[in-house]
Write a structure and sequence with these properties.
By secondary structure, the protein is of the alpha/beta class. It folds into two domains: 179 residues, 3-Layer(bba) Sandwich (FAD/NAD(P)-binding domain); 112 residues, FAD/NAD(P)-binding domain (3-Layer(bba) Sandwich), CATH 3.50.50. The strands form four sheets. Strands 1, 2, 3, 4, 5, 6 and 17 form a seven-stranded mixed sheet that branches. The chain is elongated. Bound molecules: NADPH dihydro-nicotinamide-adenine-dinucleotide phosphate. The site of NADPH dihydro-nicotinamide-adenine-dinucleotide phosphate (NDP) has 19 residues, from helix 5.
Length: 303
């Protein structure tokens, strides 16, 4: 039986793997997609202590390598079922049939981008509608793009796209950005960015590929914007449904755990963006990974 099973290989999960391996525990880490998590899509990280300007991709790769060097075992599968208890151990089953028995579990599943819920959104995804500017922005070089949202992701996306696209609309439902002031100020220096605020995206148009969007102002006026792409950056949602019978979730679906990362179920910990918390940042995800791994390592050693 594995000492510590970790679900999710983002910053929290990979940091947890390093700490648990350094504590001498056996570690199996499950990841359904590429390792690295959300940060992979950030072009430049400016606020991680002592690493100014590092790219998200480089950061995530280094962290992945570090966890491998410490001997964490990786399984690329999405956990679909988990049951058990601290007394009998936990059993996990993946979508592609992988299984694992573990004394303790760290849930580090992060969050995924929120969808708009508009007609045609799913059909036009990958055909002009995108949730990742750094992944798909290059397809729209020299063209017109729009970004929907007002947080750090949206403003970073708009800055990035303004450097490769002819013009960029940023559509946000309020008159002020939620993004950090430094980013919002930087955006103002990019002269090909056109602000549509306070507006929301209310309809998508295009047969087979996006050609325009309808934006609606706060006082109900519609306007059609011709654009080749719409990058959706309206926040994040957790994907913790699979754990709902194992641990307590809050009303938004985040795992309830405090700074100690302990959940309502003994032996199960939650680390990083997937848990209830105020500040979802790289540095707090790493901190959670350490806290959860230290607690899980101590517990699994005592069994
Ligand atoms: P945020 O939750 O910070 O922002 C989401 C934005 O989308 C807000 O402006 C919000 O509007 C808007 N929004 C939410 N729901 C809707 C909706 N249904 N319709 C229209 N607009 C909507 O998400 P982000 O992805 O930007 O960031 C997530 C976390 O990651 C944050 O903690 C952020 O600070 C962090 N991050 C940090 C970075 C950095 O430090 N460099 C880079 C990227 C992300 P409103 O403002 O009205 O609520």
């Amino acid at each position: 039986m594995i000492d510590v099973a970790i679900i999710g290989a983002g910053t929290a999960g990979l940091t947890a793997a390093i700490y648990a391996r350094r504590a001498g525990r056996s570690v199996m880490i499950f990841e359904g997609e590429a390792p690295g998590g959300q940060i992979i899509n950030t072009p430049e990280i400016d606020n991680f202590p002592a690493l100014p300007g590092v790219s998200g991709y480089e950061y995530a790769n280094k962290l992945f390598e570090q966890a491998q060097e410490f001997g964490a075992e990786f399984v690329f599968d999405t956990i679909r079922k988990i049951e058990g208890s601290l007394e009998e151990g936990f059993t996990m089953t993946g979508e592609y049939g992988s299984t694992c028995e573990a004394k303790t579990v760290i849930i580090a599943t992060g969050v995924k981008r929120r969808e708009m819920g508009l007609d045609g959104e799913r059909e036009l995804a990958g055909r002009g509608v995108s949730y990742c500017a750094t992944c798909d922005g290059a397809f729209f070089k020299g063209k017109t793009a729009a970004v929907f949202g007002g947080g750090n992701t949206a403003v970073e996306d708009a800055i990035y796209l303004s450097e490769i696209c002819k013009e960029v609309y940023i559509i946000h439902r309020r008159t002020e950005f939620r993004a950090d002031k430094a980013l919002a100020d930087e955006l103002l220096t990019h002269k090909n960015v056109i602000k549509k605020m306070p507006y929301t995206v209310s309809a998508l148009h295009g047969e087979g590929k996006l050609t325009s969007v309808t934006v609606t102002s706060i006082d109900g006026k519609d306007e059609e914007l011709t654009t080749d792409a719409l990058f959706v950056a309206i926040g994040l949602i957790p994907e913790n449904g699979v754990f709902k019978d194992l641990v307590e979730l809050d009303e938004s679906g985040y795992v309830i755990a405090d700074e100690t990362c302990e959940t309502s179920t003994p032996g199960v910990f939650a680390a990083g963006d997937c848990r209830t918390k105020d500040v979802r940042q790289l540095v707090t995800a790493a901190a959670d990974g350490a806290a959860a791994a230290i607690a899980a390592s101590r517990l699994s050693q005592s069994l």
